[in-house]
Amino acid sequence: MPISRRDALLVGSAGLAAAGLSGGRAAAQPAPRAAHSVTVDPAGDYAPGRPGQDYRPVVTPDGATLPHRVVNGVKVFHLVAEEVEHEFAPGLRATTWGYNGRTHGPTIEAVEGDKVRIYVTNRLPASTTVHWHGVILPSGMDGVGGLNQRAIHPGETFIYEWTFRQHGTFMYHSHHDEMTQMAMGLMGMMVVHPRRPEGPLPDRDYAIMLSEWSLPAGASRPDPNAMADFNILTMNAKCYPGTSPLVAAQGERVRLRFGNLSAMDHHPIHLHGYAFTITETDGGVIPETARHPDTTVLVATGSTRTVEFVADNPGDWAMHCHMTHHVMNQMGHDLPNMTGVDARRVDRAVGGLLPTYMTMGHDGMGEMGAHLEMGHMPIPENSLPMIGARGPRDYITMGGMFTILKVRPGLTGDADPGWYSNPEGEARLASASELARDGISEG
Amino acid sequence: MLCNKPLAVFAMAAALLGGCATLDPDQVASDVMDEAAQRTQLALNGSGSLDTAPAAVDLALVHNRSVRADLLQAGVSAAELNALSRPGNPIFEVVSLPGGDHGRVLDVDLRASVLGVAATPWRARTARAAYAAERSEALLRLVDFTADVERAWVEAVAARQRLDLYARILEAAEAAMTIAEELDAAGNRPAIARVRERNMLINVQLEYATAQLQAEAARFALERLTGQGVRLEELPVALPAPVPAILPGEDEVLDASLPLARSRAQVEAVSRAAGLENWASLLDHAEIGLAAEREDREWARGWMAEISLPLFDQGQHRRAAARLRAEQALERHAALTADIVAALTNARSVHALAVEQATRVDDDLLPASEALLEQTLLQYNAMQLGVFELLNAFETRTRAGLAWIDAHAAAHQADIAVRQLAAGGSPGAVSIMPVAAGPSADAGDH
Q1: Whether A403 contacts A60, CB under 8 Å
Q2: Confidence at residue B269, expressed as pLDDT on a 0 to 100 scale
Q3: Which of A129, A270, A329, B442 has the fewest Cβ atoms surrounding its Cβ within 10 A?
Q4: What is the SS3 assignment for B109-162?
Q5: Is B445 domain-assigned?
Q6: How far apart are CA B185 and CA A338, in angstroms?
Q7: How many A-B residue pairs are in contact by the CB < 8 A criterion?
Q8: Residues of chain A found within 8 Å of residue B192, distances taken between Cβ atoms
Q9: Counted domains in chain B
């Protein structure tokens, strides 16, 4: 990323030190600094960062980036809080709350040092505010209803203004009647690119908001009263099979920014096929000496985590929350445990009363999605009970907070490249000769 | 020669008084039956069965011996009326005494009670009123009987239908028990869950046993009335839809009312009896007659009169009693009129409510319980609800069926009560079972 001459003149020594540009770590050691990551002079004046020039825009899968205008050197954004007809996945829609016609709201992107002015118009039936989660800003701009400001009443427009003096991955969300408004979807990602980035830039930069919903099968409005029984777990407000895959060309550097604003849950996000490095939290860049390789990053609620890796392993790779109930869609939790019962005996007992009855769960839930796919078991309209999707080789028994990273050699663009073809001979049942060769008995 | 002019007059008067119109007692029963059929608007042709309530009535009228006895009683009353419509027979008395040389002395008297002859028209009218009351009574018993048979048929069919539904509920409870056993065998639940389910099952078994008792009681009641062996399997599997009733007006019901007709006849009878008593009490014993005496081979003729002297009892107490009985009859008549009006109001009201309730069950409860089961099945398929909730919804729908039976039985009972009143039957509060909607038992573990 080029650094403008004017920016170079304006940046102070603290910023250079934080950015690792001052000639060595030893030189930066004695200077006290804020915990958050800074590469600019806090008192400096910077030109608005330009997408594609001053930063590589982030991609929000299944989402969007909030457009802005520059007015007198200030980036002007306009968020409109309103009711949204949202689709979590094909077959499951709901009336949610969001911003600018989307749930979640579009990602706000800026560059460290940018002056921003964000108008928030409230078209909801309830008052609201917006809190800029993780952003260091003036107290009056922090968005806590009743504390920092009066709530924005329906029909009103509030103005938030500040200058970004940090970079990193942040979030925004309602801070008025949070329980209701966040449960309804009022949140979004916010990415502030460093004015002077350190290290190689990513080739693919994805922002993913993790959240959870309570939406009973057949209902069409999330239940804000839920405290424990969340049944739709989403990445950018989409649950699998509604999540779009992440794509990367083999060898590309990939950055994944996770934010979690789930009501009650943390999410250990696990990426198959790779080890990655956790590089940032919403508090700032993790010093290289503190980084470690990992395959799962725990994204606590109310925090962000950024990971990076080089996509050098081609294939289709699952990426999902490792809490098993978080990869199920609309799972019922008050069911009797039917595992191991004699289904035929139960079928006989109940089938005389209800001819279409079929015992389920006696051998697990794995067949559920396939049964539903066959269409012989009607389910409530507008529901996704434990539905996964038909994969290239069988039914994928995953839902919820699940997506797929597709890495292909020579891939260009963002389009889904389709399913990965395993090399000949991979992914098959053992042959009899192999079993015999290695002394494996199936009996 | 005994016959002389006065005697001939006496004899002619007696014959005239005795020659009043008479009723054929053997025809009375048939007439009463015809009128009952007309009043109840039932086609009574002797081809009865248990297929419908009217057919059951037909069956009962053929075979029930009590009904036949009641009809014969009407004939008995007719015969008694005929008897009372004639004057008391005169008394002929001959006294023969030894008469010495001139042969026996004969004393011949022919006399008649003055009251027995002169009061014959009054007594006949009183008897006719009494007969009218008896006939009304017989007709009333018949009309009430037809209503009783219809009621018993409705109850028996309802009881059979209830029993079928309780069998389904029992089947569901047994299925739940099977599942509980399976869960227990698989080690998926603590023992308390199975024990809880067992308790549920026992409760449902007891409910089923109660339904069996009620069905047996209803079957027996119908059997008694029809005079024929009745098996539940012979009855229809479900109650028919109630036919919309044509609700009679108050005047119509009062005009048709047999209890009221009987009461009117009784009033008339006791009033006439009171009128008769006014002079009967004074002429407690009064006889006039002819006397002839033969002595010494010569007949001496004369007349005789005999009267009790009202020295100690002038009859005022009998007259007072008769007057009070007449007043009493009037009071009872008025009370009965009020009863009938109240019963009609009650029957109309109960009918309207019962029909509304049956309509509500038809239009709302059954579809709602069906929808609940459908939605529960969808939620079960979606693994949002378990099999116990599914069985619970099945039970709810089945119990809605019980509510349907109760509501329709109530509508039928109310309809029968209204038609009974319109046919002139007995008034009485319409007694119907409360409609029990929804599961009565706790869902237990499920």
Answers
A1: no
A2: 78
A3: B442
A4: EEEEEHHHHHCHHHHHHHHHHHHHHHHHHHHHHHHHHHHHHHHHHHHHHHHHHH
A5: no
A6: 11
A7: 107
A8: none
A9: 1
Lowest mean pLDDT among A74-78, A426-430, B126-130, B377-381: B126-130
Map residue A118 onto helix, strand or coil.
Answer: strand
Does B185 sit within 8 Å of A350, measured CB to CB?
no
How far is the alpha carbon of B236 from chain A, nearest alpha carbon, in Å? Answer: 22
Across the interface, whether the CB atoms of A341 and B388 are under 8 A apart is answered: no
Q: What is the dihedral of CA A277, A282, A286, A291, to 10 degrees?
A: -30
Residue A358: closest CA among chain B residues belongs to which residue? B381
Q: Compute φ and ψ for A237, nearest 5 degrees.
A: 65, 20
The whole-number pLDDT of residue B17 equals: 53
Evaluate whether residue B37 is within a structural domain. Answer: no
- CA dist A298 to A36, A168, A202, A294, B380, Å? 20, 18, 22, 10, 34
* Partners of A396 in the β-ladder: A389
Among the partner residues A217, A346, A379, nearest to B182 by beta-carbon distance = A346
Task: List the single range of B50-54, B268-272, B338-342, B345-349 with lowest mean pLDDT.
Answer: B268-272
Chain B, 359 to 398: residues with Cβ < 8 Å from chain A are 375, 377-388, 390-391, 394
Mean pLDDT (chain A, rounded): 91
* Structural domain that includes position B338: 66-422
Complex confidence, ipTM = 0.85
B378 with A372: Cβ contact below 8 A: no
Say whether A356 and B377 touch across the interface (CB within 8 A). Answer: yes
Q: Which amino acid is at B255?
A: D
Is residue B442 in a domain?
A: no
pLDDT tens for each residue of B29-48: 888 888 888 888 877 777 78
Nearest to B178 among A218, A346, A386 (CB): A346
Query: Is B229 domain-assigned?
Result: yes
CA distance A370 to chain B (A): 12
Residue of A nearest to B187 (CA): A340
Reduced to 3 states (helix: H, G, I; strand: E, B; else coil), residue A108 is: strand
CATH number at residue B98: 1.20.1600.10
Reported as half-sphere exposure (CB side, CA atoms, 13 A), residue B142 has a value of 33
d(Cα A279, Cα A344) in Å, to the nearest integer? 54
Determine whether the interchain pair B385/A335 forms a contact, defined as Cβ–Cβ distance below 8 Å.
yes
